[in-house]
Amino acid sequence: MSSAMQPTPAGIYVRISQDTEDTGLGVKRQRQDCEALAARKGWEVVDVYEDNDVSASKGKPRPAYQRLARDVDAGRVRAVVVWDVDRLTRTPRELEGVIEWAERHGLELASVGGEIDLSTPQGRMTARIKGTVARHEVEQLSRRVRRKHQELAEAGKHAGPRPFGWDITADKRLTINRAEAAVVRECVRRVLAGEGLWSIVNDLTERGVTTPRGGPWQTQPLRRMLLRWRNCGIRTYKGQEMGPGQWEPIIDRETHERVVAHLTDPARKTNNRGTAVRYLLTSIAECGECGRYLVGKKGYTYRVKVPPLAGESEPRYRVRTYAAAYTCPHAGCMRVSRPMTDLDEHVSAVVVGYLEREGVRLLGGDAEAAHEARSRVDALEAKLGLAADQFADDIITGDQFQRITGKLRPQLEAARSQLARSMPADGLEGFAGPDAATVWDGADVEQRRRVLRILGEVGLRIRVDRVGSGNGREYDPDSVTVTFERQEVTA
After folding, report:
1. Which among 437, 478, 421, 482 has a CA at the least distance from the CA of 455?
2. Residue range(s) defining the domain that contains residue 370
3. d(CA 383, CA 379)
4. pTM over 0.90, yes/no
5. d(CA 185, CA 226)
6. pLDDT tens-digit profile of 201-240?
7. What is the CATH number of the domain that holds 12?
8. Residue 160 burial (CB count, 10 A)
9. I want to staple 12 with a disulfide (CB 3.0 to 4.6 A). Which of 34, 71, 205, 256 is the partner?
């Protein structure tokens, strides 16, 4: 057959925005209709481009559509068959690209929903009108969906997939999943005790605890789960509190607020790599020569080749071992090094002694202020509850209810803030007082570093001075100075 008689190479593009059951039935029906249309026009279908469960209006990548564009530009496809124009695109900007294909490559477009001749001004006008209508429908649908979600939020109802810690009933209500709720409470306790998210994730993975979709936990999804206000029974919408949700909370609001404060603290240094913190004093102890931080360096062993003894032909090797140490790594200095074990033990003894004597003042809270603030919170919440009951019973009007709540809510927020400020530091209670040594010995490196960082915020400084030749091989406690609030602290 001559080239003039060869059928036009065509590509079929099919798409469905949502395939909640993952069956692909929508695109299969589109494909059948498009194949029949291509056959009627005498076109040869060279490929089918299928984007299943992908929206054309949200700016998300459509792999099949991008592949179609490459094949059109390469001349492999000279005609496109779609079920309707809105399957190909729902944005006027993208539609202009299709029209440009027609002008540049002579591309033909066939639609099961009605013929569109892109080679004529009338056909291009029809395509643009259909594209504009499709865009209008998208915007209207989006507006209705947003309004529906707002209504659900205002009513305290859940929307979306199953959240970890709850099950979803047939009528879309949340009920506590006891096993997962226990995991949520456990994670909350561990975070407030100062444990890193990576450590919790590793533990959950080892235990086989999975996300609602059955996958392994990662640090960021775990963080998002712990930050959601749903945990304490609060319904939010676009970051704003809408009121109580229609489900049983897993933790109380006060505890959740402490979690949020901890995880969103700008001063909090995170470790999301999933690796354990190794060294206690890295970036905490200072070099006495240059004033910058020391870093931990792991120990190592290597062999040194030495001449053979008289009468021996084989070389000999001497083993040299260097213990783990804290060193100054900064160019222009690198003059300070100290054995890690000795320095850790020295600093720990000094810090623990200070925690035993003054830890309550530094790490504890104000018990009397906390009691007063909690009583104030309880009283204001009771008043708000009473006002809500009176409004529901038509004892007070809506205007009266709004005036009452408008006056009480700022007071309640102030009382809650006062309560948070007066509470003991999360997970640090045991480090203050006579049991400090026992708690310190049982804590991991990350928890100890958290205590040192908090003490550093209020005056703790650890300086390691140079001791001359042989620096780092012999430990000299007099070369290490631990100061606090400008007063030297001794072991």
Report:
1. 482
2. 330-484
3. 6
4. no
5. 9
6. 988 998 999 999 889 999 899 999 999 999 999 888 877 7
7. 3.40.50.1390
8. 9
9. 34
